[in-house]
Amino acid sequence: RFSIDLVESTSEGARSALHFNPRIDEKIVVRNSYDGSWADEERDVPFFPFLEGTKFTLRLLVTDDEFDINMNGKDFIHFHHRMPFNDMYYLALNEDAEYYDVDIQNEKVGYLYLTTNVLPTNLGICQKIPGSLRPGRWIFVHGTAKKDPNKFEINLQCNDTLNYDETDIALHLNPRFSEEVTVRNHLVDGSWGDEEQDQPFFPFEAEDTFNIAINVQSDKFKVYANGRHYIDFDHRIDIGKICHIMLDGDANFFEPEFN
Q1: Pairwise CA distance, residues 13 & 6, whole Å
Q2: Residue 70 banded pLDDT, cuts 50, 70, 90
Q3: Could you tell me which residue ranges the Galectin domain spans (predicted)?
């Protein structure tokens, strides 16, 4: 579960005009306010728009009478003001979600726009790459390493699966935190090729955000980490066979982007 709050200050126990708390295990969304103690909860919803591993877009319109909340382009719920919303100066985003865009518009009538991912803790993500992968294209992967991470994987692969026995992999990127090395390899018919481990630096840290950009060239993948050229990996199989990206391991990933 996670929560989004409009609060008066950053101090503990600050008043909250809106506490928005989706609980994925119960498939409910609790709304409430806090003024020294919690008031009456509201739980009724027309549908439940939050699923593990899927992106959601929340739009919050502040009117004179209520908060109007829209989810993924659909009217969702309305929460009548219980205290003056003009006293709320902070937005608190808490627990179990990765937020990657917050936009606040219009000073008099607030329009809050959140785009965010709620990501599973133990399940990998396999997503289709739009269009064909060809020289000149870019793939962008953003994420945050978990606390005490061991490793995570980014695969450019030839099938829609999380099972290594069911796909060939053109590029396997595997940062390993204990060794501070990123292993690169490919997989064909269940057999791994020769590993590559040379690198100029190790760009990943526990609980730190990372940005990876993969440029597809005619003869290789050129990989950038946090804006710096990191490593190259020569093509070992036909890049035309690549159709999916798989993300797994000890990181919370944002939705990958393609150019």
Answers
A1: 13
A2: confident
A3: 1-105, 125-259
Q: What dihedral do alpha carbons 230, 235, 241, 246 form, nearest 10°?
A: -30
Tokens of 140: 């962008």
Instruction: Assess whether the region 3-118 and the region 125-258 belong to the same CATH fold.
Output: yes
Q: For residues 134 and 258, what is the distance between their CA atoms, to the nearest angstrom?
A: 12
pLDDT tens by residue, 3-27: 888 888 888 889 999 999 988 888 8
DSSP 165-200: GG--EEEEEEEETTTTEEEEEEEETTEE---B---S
* Amino acid occupying residue 244: H
Task: From the options 2.80.10.50, 2.60.120.200, 3.30.70.270, 2.30.30.40, give the CATH code of 3-118.
Answer: 2.60.120.200
Could you tell me if 140 and 130 are in contact, meaning their C-beta atoms sit under 8 angstroms apart?
Answer: no
Model pLDDT for residues 209-232, shown as the tens digit of each residue? 899 999 999 999 999 999 999 999
